[in-house]
Specification:
By secondary structure, this protein is mostly beta strands. Helix content is 12%, strand content 32%. Strand 13 and strand 14 form a beta hairpin.
């Protein structure tokens, strides 16, 4: 809740938190591994809904407080190389970058509006991070904060918050000359990849990572992100068992389980090359980063759009799916009156 109250003018317009270094605690209601949040419903309950909700109140459980580790819109960063800039105070709190790029570019840089033609930071003001691809085939550029040696993950995950939630907005321009991908890579250690996701700069196709970032380690989701616009991604990865989920613009689009788990080093801003770039470069843009430790809590099936609240949007989805399996809440394979009753009974925050 603290980070929701502290917002810059940019973030007030778009609803994202201002840069806050360090750890901030916030509460959340128990939800599935795919759904963890700390939201307050803005919808008033009609009397019938309130009655149904009261009858179902016993199924709601309160979990451990979610903990924000990093919250930044990059607006308070200096323009220039991201490497060495402070993400949080203490050991491992400065950004590290890696990648051999064509001059004059560096792997990751902080830029403002007007620097990259056709791409401005979220909200049109402030700053963002530009990631540049390596100059080699099968190369990778990355930027990260050390969550292991800093002790940040150990402190944030106390109390059962075993899921790392990475929220990020990504802009991938189309018509780039280098075959490349951009996204998030989760590192188990300084040399081991666990999971993450990548977006193709050529097609927008999204793939999930498992055990590496090469083509053989990518699993197609069958879902694509729109190029030439900001897309919000939420990737949740359970450090304890490797279960992961990916949301795109508010909807869960894929789930998987990684073969490597049990520890966490970093959530990397990440880019790859899938062809020899030569003197060419490809760019991806990142803004509004939030890294949090959250609980792998109980399911909330009535939240059909996975935004943390059962509300009018979910009701519309259910009614639109009537008679099919698409709005099935109770798991019987059909969307009917029983599902409607379940949704109304769960009205409000999950």
């Amino acid at each position: 809740m603290l980070r929701r109250l502290a917002r810059s003018a940019k973030n007030l317009r778009i609803g994202f938190p201002v840069p806050v270094h360090g750890i901030v605690a916030r509460t959340q209601y128990s939800r599935s591994m795919n759904r963890s949040t700390s939201r307050v419903s803005s919808f008033a309950r009609p009397p019938i809904v309130a009655a149904l909700a009261a009858a179902c109140a016993g199924v709601l459980a309160f979990s451990a407080a979610a903990t924000d580790i990093v919250v930044t819109s990059f607006d308070d960063y200096a323009v220039g190389n991201l490497s060495g800039q402070v993400g949080f105070t203490g050991i491992g709190g400065t950004w590290a970058t890696s990648g051999s790029t064509n001059a004059p570019f560096v792997p990751a840089s902080v830029i403002g509006p007007g620097t990259a033609p056709g791409v401005d930071p979220v909200g049109g003001a402030g700053k963002m991070v530009r990631l540049t691809t390596e100059k080699f085939n099968n190369g990778r550029s990355k930027a990260w904060l050390d969550l292991l040696n800093s002790g940040k993950w150990a402190a944030a995950s106390v109390g059962g918050n075993t899921v790392l939630e990475t929220r990020i907005k990504v802009f991938v321009p189309s018509a780039q000359r280098v075959t490349s991908t951009f996204g998030i890579m989760i590192s188990k250690s300084s040399f081991e990849t666990s999971g993450g996701f990548l977006v193709s700069a050529q097609t927008g196709a999204i793939s999930l990572l498992n055990g590496g970032y090469a083509a053989a380690n990518r699993v197609a989701t069958g879902v694509s992100a729109s190029l030439n616009q900001w897309n919000e991604f939420i990737y949740r990865w359970n450090v304890a068992n490797g279960e992961g989920s990916l949301s795109l613009n508010g909807s869960v689009v894929a789930n998987h389980t990684t073969t490597a788990f049990g520890a966490l080093y970093a959530s990397n801003l990440f880019a790859t090359t899938d062809a020899t770039p030569g003197a060419s470069n490809a760019f991806g843009y990142f803004d509004d980063l939030v890294l949090s430790a959250v609980s792998p809590a109980v399911p909330c099936p009535p939240d059909l759009n996975d935004d943390g609240t059962v509300d009018a949007a979910d009701l519309a989805s259910l009614l639109g799916a009537w008679g099919t399996a698409a709005g099935d809440v109770n798991g019987d394979g059909n969307t009917d009156a029983a599902d409607l009753a379940a949704l109304l009974g769960a009205w409000g925050t999950c």
